[in-house]
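Methods: example folding runs. The two proteins below were folded one after another, and each record is reproduced exactly as written to the output file, sequence line first and structure-token line second.
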Amino acid sequence: MQACQNESKILILEIEVEELVCGDGQRIFEGRVLDLSGIKSVTANIQTRKAQIRYRDHQVSAKQIEEHLKEFGFTIDGVEGNQVTRGRLPSCCFQKNVETIEET
């Protein structure tokens, strides 16, 4: 049997999300990603501020995913999202997760 050429592939998008610093931000982020058709799974890590999104290439593109998230105010790979909706994110999403390393 041959596979159908129109069969959708599962691709992985890895992005950095500045506001991914708290549990609230993580839940909101994951919910917004899952709003889109074609999303298979999303894993967001608040320690690294990175997310991995698995999606079907025939249903949604990486660009569409990134634009969708920016519309909800998220900063994706250093590009700030919509300023109006950004202001609606919880204030904890804007805390800097700073770790200081003392060198001796």
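Second run, written to the same file directly after the first:
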Amino acid sequence: MQTKIQLNDYQIPRRWYNVMADMPNPPQPVLHPQTLQPVCPDDLRPIFPMALIEQEVSSERWIDIPEEVLKAYQLWRPAPMLRAHRLEAALKTPAKIYYKYEGVSPAGSHKPNTAIPQSYYNQQAGIKRLATETGAGQWGSSIAFANSLFGLETTVYMVKVSYEQKPYRKNLMQVWGANVIPSPSTLTQVGKKILEADPESPGSLGIAISEAVEDAATHGDTNYALGSVLNHVCLHQTVIGLEAIIQLEMVDDYPDVIFGACGGGSNFAGIAFPFIRDKINGKEIRLVAVEPASCPTLTKGQYAFDYGDTAKLTPVSKMYTLGHDFVPPGIHAGGLRYHGDSALVSQLYHEGLIEAVAYPQNACFEAALLFARNEGIVPAPESSHAVKGAVDAAIEAREAGEEKTILFCLSGHGHFDMSAYDAYLSGGLEDYEYPAAKIEQSLANLPKIDA
């Protein structure tokens, strides 16, 4: 009975897969935040190296992974795929459940898959420091780790509620040399304005992004790095799905349904995008993005042009959004608290190629405990959403008497998130479904664009 499906180092994908090459319709243009006209490469030069700008707009299907990036990937890739035999038995399901485990990375999540190339390309461009934001801390620790490999300094604006909930994530970033600042802060004009309006602001990813972008744009030796949402970030994450395809072929299997937790979209894109080619070509496969009910971007947001941050400093993209000034509650799945979604994920959802579902956090933690008590790995709160999707699908297969193959991305471990599990186990974890009236209020402030 095979449990682990493992690849050798030479089987790490040598090219990333670009879903834009196969999308039925080209993506909508990205607009300049001031002029609301399509951006050109020079507009992005103040915060990104040209190599990443080129990847952001490329329509090439395959993009080569640099050798230095591959060498760094070898510290933990290829990531294992496991068959969840014990979970299947506990659920008494005829379904086969596989999970791609990204928690084996040094940072404990999938985020280094893009942090490594972003750090590399910035170092090649002569950049000395990267400014970024982080929610739960997975991205902040990943870029700090990557920059420690390539000799760059790191400044991380960490959403204040997560900064307070997850002190060990902060410590991990500091181990790798990062300067970690709770956001909103008094170090940027954006942060000062937010605190003047609300001194007790818990922060949001939109606010933290604004602070990091302002930092990068006002320092010549500094660029900005983003851990999700953007096209090049989704591109880098496709190593997950590309490895998964090979691993499933090794056991002569193919998924009927794939689940990935979805905040900004990079984790979901990583596991799902490499399978979308098959879906476009007529293969029967479901690709399901799982989000929190308290930040239901795909399931309750509006498909519209919106800013990527609170202060309107970032380009305007067409995406599913709850509004750029939306401030979600301080749920423990901090990496899923972004107001918008990847433009690519959003378009694929709008065109019916992928699905989305939202769950409250208590139901996700219940599934996470079931998984941990059978498979041994404690999922990150974000990852628990994918676990919940897989568990529900397995139960549906049991009730229907169908032999389904389920794949999900276990995007990280929860070793730095035990305060969240403590809250759940003590009965102190509250479900929060964001009021429709507040979502409508936030959506009323979308930019007025005829498109």
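Comment on the second run: The chain has a mean pLDDT of 92.
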